[in-house]
Design a protein that fits this description.
This protein has 300 residues and is of the alpha/beta class. The chain has twelve helices and twelve strands. The protein folds into two domains: 109 residues, 3-Layer(aba) Sandwich (Rossmann fold), CATH 3.40.50.720; 178 residues, NAD(P)-binding Rossmann-like Domain (Rossmann fold, 3-Layer(aba) Sandwich). 37% of the residues lie in helices and 16% in strands. The strands form two sheets. It has a seven-stranded parallel beta sheet, sandwiched between helices. It has a five-stranded parallel beta sheet with strand order 2-1-3-4-5. Strand 3, helix 3 and strand 4 form a beta-alpha-beta unit. It is elongated, with a radius of gyration of 22 Å. The model has no long low-confidence stretch (mean pLDDT 97). Bound molecules: nicotinamide-adenine-dinucleotide (NAD).
Length: 300
């Protein structure tokens, strides 16, 4: 059987596929190239690109499985795949640890003023009195969306001697017990947390779930973290909350529009930003390739 790898996945993943299948690599083809190529293949591997449209799927006469290395299936026409009995698989577990670790990298950077300390020292300034930070031990971390990543956040939080509370639409008592997490309502999480971190998918129900009203409930000392999807926070309301010092600060890995050039948030001081780097580690990328190869083998 033949697999077309149409996006850059880890060498380990490709090696695994080659153990069982004939593998051809064609990184990020145009739709017309993919339509032409796909007819001979039993499996297709993509990432967030290329787009797997109806045209591509219908041209895949032998196609049985589409593997998306990573999370999110928005580039794949799932309806057409379902109509034609083609299975779609992904690797949502591959990056959970990496994303959770980035949450703490961001929180510590903001809480200990790491960026300001680094920048001022490079300017030959020794300004210790302006660089007093906040300790994490004993603080409450509020996890909104207690799924795969949320659970890893709670696990790491335990290492910092933090108390974890969570809000989720699905209650998983076993997972909560595992890391000593207590479920609360959204309002309680917003009111009681020192650090609030979002780990929900972007859905109509989660779009702008943190807006003006929610910022009013937060502690003045709260730090808000978003490493989920940009649209979950109303960025205008966040800008106002930060500008008016309604909260201590915000750490963002994701934005409503990426890259967020010209975003007014980038002008604010009480913030730390990264460039949608949650899953951008050697380990997460290696795992994503291996998991997708295993998933394809399982289907075929
Ligand atoms: P998951 O499905 O394991 O967990 C999501 C949780 O959110 C679930 O427990 C679900 O019940 C809950 N949820 C859904 N709707 C909700 C609502 N309306 N209110 C409260 N909770 C709700 O997902 P995950 O693997 O933990 O990923 C979480 C998020 O992280 C996703 O948005 C994903 O796209 C994002 N992500 C970001 C990066 C990055 O690079 N920054 C990398 C991977 C994943």
């Amino acid at each position: 059987m033949k697999i077309l790898v149409a996006a850059r996945i880890s060498e380990e993943g490709i090696k695994k596929l080659k153990e069982k299948y004939e593998v051809e690599i064609m990184y990020n083809p145009e739709e017309s190239e993919l339509v032409e190529k796909i007819k001979d293949f039993d499996g297709l591997v993509v990432r967030s690109k290329p787009k797997v449209t109806r045209k591509v799927i219908e041209a895949g006469k032998k196609l049985k499985v589409i593997g998306r290395a990573g999370v999110g299936l928005d580039n794949i026409d799932l309806e057409t795949a379902k109509e034609r009995g083609i299975k779609v698989v992904n690797s949502p577990n591959a990056s959970s640890e990496s994303v959770a670790e980035l949450v703490f990298a961001l929180v510590l950077a903001l809480a200990r003023k790491v960026i300001k300390a680094d920048r001022s020292l490079r300017d030959n300034k020794w300004i210790k009195k302006d660089l007093r930070g906040i300790e994490l031990a004993g603080k409450t971390i509020g996890i909104i969306g207690y799924g795969r990543i949320g659970a890893h956040v709670a696990k790491i939080g335990n290492g910092f001697d933090m108390k974890s509370i969570a809000y989720d639409v699905i209650i998983n008592e076993e997972l909560a017990k595992k890391y000593g997490v207590v479920y609360k309502t959204l309002d309680e999480v917003l009111r009681e947390s020192d650090i609030i971190t979002l780990h929900v998918p972007l859905l109509p129900q989660t779009k702008h779930m943190i807006g003006e009203e929610q910022f009013k409930m937060m502690k003045k000392t709260a730090i808000l973290v978003n490493a989920s999807r940009g649209g979950t926070i109303d960025e205008k309301a966040l800008y106002n909350a930060l500008k008016n010092n309604e909260i201590y600060g915000a750490c963002l890995d994701v934005f409503e529009n990426e890259p967020p050039f010209d975003n007014p948030l980038l002008e604010l001081e009480n913030t730390v930003f990264t460039q949608h780097l949650g899953a951008n580690t050697n380990e997460a990328q290696t795992k994503a390739g291996i998991i997708i190869a295993e998933e394809i083998m399982r289907i075929l």
